[in-house]
Task: structure prediction
Amino acid sequence: MIIDVHGHYTTAPAALGAWRDLQIAGLKDPSQAPSASALKISDDEIRDTIENNQLKLMKERGSDLTIFSPRASFMAHHIGDFETSATWAAICNELCYRVSELFPDHFIPAAMLPQSPGVDPATCIPELVKCVEQYGNVGINLNPDPSGGHWTSPPLSDRSWYPIYEKMVEYDIPAMVHVSTSCNSCFHTTGAHYLNADTTAFMQCLTSDLFKDFPTLKFLIPHGGGAVPYHWGRFRGLAQELKKPLLDEHLLNNIFFDTCVYHQPGIDLLTKVIPVKNILFASEMIGAVRGIDPTTGHYYDDTKRYIEDTVNLNAEERFQVYEGNARRVFSRMDAALKKKGL
Result:
């Protein structure tokens, strides 16, 4: 199987965005605030948005299953308070669950959390539990910066995050460390904030002993790890100066990278620098970079082409990137597939 571990519902029906606009308007004028039950999206609307977008491209490009979560830029945890985020997260997670129910052979859900700046991360646990136990979610998205580009939260190694980690370990689910929209004009959302956050999350783990407290905790750092593979020597050297173990021992039993890197030299670098066991196939298709590369004539986010064309992987290693590693990291997905005889 070819498993894409990084998919977002970027094509959700327009009614979802319209409801969110009303929710935001209601923060200033409560008379504008809609109820969650006011949002009406039919199964046919969901089918239309998926069949003509993600599923169509999956079939054309040759992928089989996508781990599917709410649109990252829509999480916008900096808007409103915890109740705002809790309602919004519940709505978005239910939609992804409905996608997985309508297309069970092609999508399996992962959850966004109802994070809010300055609010105890433990408040996210009820939504996490619901999504795992009722919706069959196989992972979560964890935003290390709910402030939207101002970085007011403590680092991921801070004990305030531990209640979430304890639940992750209990359920054996990984977290994709993924920020949302930047409201800081210094940081473009997808071109700077996302990649800054990937790099920052890795460094926060490097400087800490988080994985001594949680030896089985698993983080997926998206977008190829931001600057991490390109500056692997810098991070190895910093770990050495900080008297940390070698990175293979210190971090690579717990941190994994996806292949949302949109050119051949980038994938070649990733697969040359990072051990194969730590690389999971992903495309984030219909996401941040949707255009066609004029130098190749193919879509930038058609990442399977890069995996096929790199000289750094043999057939067995490609299997690990496409399927084997994903089954190991997302153990609940593996169990769900085995239940289907796959």
About this structure: Residues 82-102 form the longest helix (21 residues). The chain has a mean pLDDT of 97. The chain is about 45% helix and 10% strand. The CA atoms of residues 82 and 116 lie 5 Å apart.
